Amino acid sequence: MKKINKISLIVISILLLSPINIFALTKSETVHVSLDYTGKVTNTIVNTKLTKLNSGDVTDYTYLTNIENLNGDEKLSLENEKLTFKSNGKDLVYQGKINNELPIKIKTKYYLDGKEVNPKDIINKKGTIRIEYALENTSYDYSSGMHTPFVVSNILLLDTNNTSNVSVNTGKVVSAGSNNIVVGLASPGLYEDLGLSELSDMDKIIISYDTTKFSLNDCYFAMTPKLLEDIDVSRLNRVDELNSSLNTLQNGMNKLESGSKELSTGASKIDNGMESLSTGIEQALKGSETITEGLNQVVLGSSKLESLTTLIDSLYSTYNDNNKLIETISSGQAKAQYEQGINDATLKKTELENTLSQVNAGISQLEQGEALGVLTEEQKAQLATLRGQRTQLEAGIEQYAQGISKAESELAQLPLNAAKLEGANEAIAKIIMGLLGTTNPSDINETNINNFKSQLTALVGGISSLKDGSKELTTGLDRLNNGSKELANGTSSLKEGSKELANGIIKINNEGIKKLSDYGSKLTNYSHKVKTLIKLSKDYNGFASDNSDNTIFIYKLSK
Questions:
Q1: What pLDDT is attached to residue 76?
Q2: What is the pLDDT of residue 128?
Q3: pLDDT at residue 374 is higher than 80
Q4: 462, 476 in Cβ contact below 8 A?
Q5: What is the mean pLDDT of residues 379-398?
Q6: What are the tens digits of pLDDT across the range 182-212?
Q7: Domain boundary among 403, 418, 433
Q8: Does residue 32 have a pLDDT over 60?
Q9: Is 76 within 8 Å of 48 (Cβ atoms)?
Q10: DSSP string covering 36-86, please?
């Protein structure tokens, strides 16, 4: 089986976006899935990498079959899903096949000028193309009633010579030389789990463009279930504290409403202070409306703060790492390393060839004696040894030749890979600048990133101040109630005023405080769902095993 070792742009992107602590990684899976242009799976291969291995006997567990060691000579033994081998302390990569159901299914539809078509029937035709990738999350947890939160990224390259007006519903389109790079993002199942209308389009990627000569292009998808696992769950507990404060405010308001009704019953005894009472009611109403309006905005925004902080950190880290990689390639360091490796391998190959010539000479001499029947037993053993060495030397020379050829091929691809990486980094930069509210790439720095995160933190802090504000509201209304009692001198004209007070408090309670309490309950519900999604992300232990620390899926839709 051919070893898969070519690092594509889509693999680099998903690895940099995944919040994985490499120092804790012991096992990782890369699932390579081949599909036809409709989304039908044709082949699934899994590469598993084991790191931080001690020398000696090692046991791993896997559902793979037809397992092959990709980077060493260790003999792998598989029995009842138990893989054993003797380790030399170095990292091990093995590959195998599996028929398990994939966590994400893709169904593709093609349209030409609004009519659904078979893409093979419109090759070289002109018109407006629409490609729909419908994504289904099959990784469902019945105990929680939610899906494992997979984040999906796809890349499609379109030739700028015959395509224009390229757009994607969730993502970016970046022009890079002769190609338009279409990058789409999705998270199937997230809208179904959270019920937020803003996420309704996260289960599909739709790409549209005009073409003068349609062609089918390969499309890559990369997926990870681990993007949420590093979110600090303790911060979500503040939402629960907020809801508790709102419940306290609601209970106090209910008591105030009950007290206002009792005040209305004895209002015939109140004789003066009507103007002050009316003014106090009006101020209380305006204050409650201001609180309600402000808290509505906080509630709507606070549920997204943690994801924005995580997103900008991941994007900024990706942006910096990409720049370093681009610099390594453009400065010639990568080229120099490849050239040095090729030179070293060539020298080693030459040494082996010289040794092979000497071994062949020895074999030739001994074979002459063998033909004459004058070989001793010791010479026969020596001849057998030399023939074995010749086989090993020939195999080693072939391996070095293949390695040199492969390195020369990858060296030739360095400029193209650098161009693709620069295009992807431009797209990331545009996203970061959008979040920072700038159009200047020089503004992408640690200071501005930290300022952005500080603003988010300040907004979260504003939520905690609700508790103090609600107490002040309760105290003010309580004073108003006490003042109304002090004014009770029994005038009939003030009776109507006390009724207005009771009605006003009921209105505040029904239209303001109760709605605010409902929003608090909804916010708590979302925080519980987010906690569940984070747990599902952390608990995902692999596709081809139950003990993988990180699993990445790479889908390739072939033309």
A1: 94
A2: 97
A3: yes
A4: no
A5: 87
A6: 998 888 998 888 887 777 888 999 999 999 9
A7: 418
A8: yes
A9: no
A10: -TTS-EEEEEEEEEE-SPPSEEEEEE---EEEEESS--PPPEEETTEEEEE
Same domain, yes or no: 109 and 209: yes
At residue 499, the pLDDT reads 62
Q: What pLDDT is recorded for position 282?
A: 59
Q: Are 21 and 232 in contact (CB under 8 A)?
A: no
Residue 444 tokens read as: 């992408």
125/117 Cα distance (integer angstroms) = 12
Structure-token match 């899976």, residue found: 29
Instruction: Find the angle CA(337)-CA(341)-CA(344) to the nearest 5 degrees.
Output: 140
For residues 417-421, give the mean pLDDT: 75
Structure tokens at 263: 């005040």
Query: Of the given ranges (35-49, 146-160, 326-340), which has the lowest mean pLDDT?
Result: 326-340
CATH number at residue 112: 2.60.40.2960
**CB-based contact 429:444 (threshold 8 Å):** yes
Please list, residue by residue across 274-297, b when 16 or more beta carbons sit within 10 angstroms of its beta carbon and e when fewer do.
beebeebbeebbebbeebbeebee
Same domain, 334 and 414: yes
**What is the spatial distance between Cα 545 and Cα 24, in angstroms, rounded to a whole number?**
18
Is the pLDDT at 353 greater than 50? The verdict is: yes
Residue type, 154: N
Q: Give the domain range for residue 42.
A: 13-21+29-102+542-557
Q: Cβ contacts of residue 493 below 8 Å, gap of 6+? A: 274
Instruction: Tell me the helices (H) and strands (E) count for the chain, helix number first.
Output: 11, 19
Q: Which two tokens stand for residue 175?
A: 């022009």
Residue 438 lies in a domain: no
Together in a domain, 124 and 197: yes
Length of the chain counted residue by residue:
559
Residue 308 lies in a domain: no
**Domains in the chain: how many in total?**
4
Return the sign of the alpha-carbon dihedral for residues 44, 50, 56, 60: negative
Same domain as 514, residue 546: no
- Token duo for residue 359: 């071994």
Element (H, E) at 179: strand 179-186
Please give the average per-residue pLDDT across 297-302, as a whole number: 58
Flag whether 8 is in a domain.
no
Token readout for 95 is 């590959």
490-513 per-position pLDDT tens digit: 455 545 655 655 564 565 445 444
State the residue for tokens 């035709």. Answer: 125
- Do 352 and 379 meet the contact criterion of CB atoms below 8 Å apart? no
Residue 445 has pLDDT above 90, yes or no: no
Asked which of 224, 250, 267 is the last residue of a domain, the reply is: 224
Amino acid in the structure at residue 371: A
- The verdict on 360 and 292 lying in the same domain is no
Let me know if residue 312 belongs to a domain. no
The tokens describing 232, both together, are: 């600090």
Q: Are residues 98 and 108 in the same domain?
A: no
530-549 per-residue burial string, b: 16 or more CB within 10 A, e: under 16: bbbbbbbbeebebbbbeebb
Q: In the structure encoding, which two tokens stand for residue 503, read together? A: 């009605």
Q: So what's the pLDDT on residue 349?
A: 82
Contact 92, 112 (CB under 8 A): no
